[in-house]
Each structure stands twice: as C-alpha cells, then as structure tokens.
Design goal:
Elements: H1 16-19, E1 23-28, H2 34-44, E2 53-56, E3 63-71, H3 78-82, E4 86-94, E5 96-98, E6 107-110, H4 118-126, E7 130-135, E8 143-144, E9 147-148, H5 149-154, E10 165-182, H6 183-195, H7 203-213, E11 221-231, H8 237-248, E12 252-262, E13 265-266
Helix pairs in contact: 6-7
Length: 272
C-alpha cells in the first residue's frame, strides 16, 4: 500500500468516520483469550490500531465462536450488547469433573457413566429450561470483595466466601446427538487444546492430572453428548455441563463450547 493517499487502494483507506461506532462480529479461536482476539484484529486490520476496542460477552479460553468487538463510540452502548441472548453448541463429557467445569482444570472426580441413556439425559436437561439461579464457576472473572473468583480459587480461599449466583434463562436446551470418544482420542484432544492456551492457566499441572487418568493406549470409551442451547446473557455453558452431571449423579464437564450466535450476529458471518 502506498503512503500517498492519492495512490492508495480505496479499500485500504480508513477514517474515524469509517470505523467509529462499529460492532464487529469476530471469531475467537480455541485457546485465545478475548483480549488476544482483539490484538489479533489489530494485526489483521491495521486501521483499528488506534481505535478504542472492547468486547461484549466474554468467552473462556476453552470456548470459541462469536465474540462481539465494540469500536470507538459503540462502547457507549456496551450494556445493550452485553444483554444480547446467546446460542451455543455444547459438548459434554461424562465420567470426569474438574475445578473449572471444563478440560482446562484439575480433575476432581471420576465415575462410571457407561449406563447413561438419551432418555435420562433429556429428563435432566428438562430441569434446566426456564429461569434458574446459576452459580458462577469457581474459576471465572466475577469479582467478590474486589478479587476475581479466579484469584480466590488460585489462592485456595474459595471456602472463605459464598459463591455468587445470578438469574439466567434457558430458552431451549436439546440433545443433538449422543456419542462415545475413545480414550486415546480424548487424551490427544485434551493435549492439543491445552497446548493452544497461552499465559498461566496451570497447564503443566492440569496436563499431568489428565495423564494420570487417561492412557494414550487405553481401550476405554467415554460417553459424550452434543447439546444445543439458547439462553440469556450471562449464562455459563460450562456450568450447565457441570450441573447436568450433578443432576444425573455422574461427573461431567464441558468438552467443547462453540458460541454460534449473539443476538443477530452468527458464527457463519464472523471474521476469522
């Protein structure tokens, strides 16, 4: 691109008027934090380098999909975008639970879920329809007494506080399919997924725990379910996975989370 505006490709010329007030539908990759996705946007689209950017609707490192980015004056309307309803495709793994309710956590409990049936799972899901009080996951950004729950958990101090909760609404929650994952494939997926995460999320400790519970040449199979969810803002999909397991009496966690929609913004139209 030429430094001379007169010779530049019109598509490469961006002004404050062009970008200010935009809402961008970004795709956050597995392993990224929302902040890392915004930095990747700046690298992808240099005309956003000096804009004020924020995200509306956090996605955990182990979740991917639609992440709304507010540009410039759009940040004044942040609350409206935070309140948008969401849709998710959630894969639940039965037989394990962790302290984060997903695979990026230390294994806390194991159990036999081989007798799980579609009928029992659907009955459990029915209990989650409508309005309910959902506790925040222990490892989350929700603050209590000036510190995030993540900090309380990392300092082994969760027992000294009451986990906060919030009212959420599950509009639809249904089974798409039941399937089984073989032990070597499960361990490989966990290894590959955690390897994509940067920063300090206890990766070494967590992987060591998974390798104690799974064998690369093991012959076990573990039941999984793909669930479609439509819900209000603020709903934690990984908490639903954990809660479904508790209702069934078996350990469970979020194996994979894909946010497919936020309001009118769909994953098919998101910027990769």
């Amino acid at each position: 691109m030429s430094d001379n505006p007169a010779m530049a490709d019109p598509k490469d010329i961006r002004t404050k008027r062009d970008t200010a007030g935009q809402v961008l539908n970004l795709y956050k990759k597995l392993g990224e934090t929302p902040r890392e996705r915004l930095e990747r946007l700046r690298a992808q689209k240099p005309h956003y380098a000096h804009e004020v950017l924020s995200y509306a609707g956090r996605l955990d490192p182990m979740a991917e999909g639609v992440l709304l980015c507010l540009v410039g004056s759009a940040n004044k309307r942040r609350d409206a975008y935070l309140d948008l309803s969401k849709e998710y495709t959630l894969d639940i793994l039965f037989g394990f639970s962790t302290d984060t309710y997903d695979i990026l956590g230390r294994v806390m409990e194991t159990g036999d879920a081989s007798t799980l049936t579609k009928k029992a799972l659907q009955q459990a899901l029915n209990e989650f329809r409508g309005q309910l009080s959902q506790e925040y996951p222990p490892y989350s950004s929700k603050t209590v007494e000036g510190k995030s729950l993540f900090e309380w958990a990392r300092n082994n101090a969760l027992s000294s506080i009451l986990l906060p909760s919030r009212s959420v609404t599950i509009y639809h929650i249904d089974i798409e399919k039941l399937y089984k994952v073989k032990e070597p494939q499960l361990l490989s997926y966990i290894n590959e997924s955690i390897a994509k995460v940067g920063g300090d999320f206890r990766q070494e400790e967590i992987l060591a725990a998974w390798h104690k519970n799974l064998k690369a040449k093991g012959d076990r199979e573990f039941p999984c379910a793909t669930i479609k969810i439509s819900c209000s803002s603020g709903t934690y999909a990984r908490s639903i996975a954990h809660g479904v397991g508790k209702h069934l009496g078996v350990p469970a966690l979020a194996l994979h989370i894909l946010r497919t929609q936020a309001g009118e913004y769909t994953v098919e139209k998101s910027l990769k």
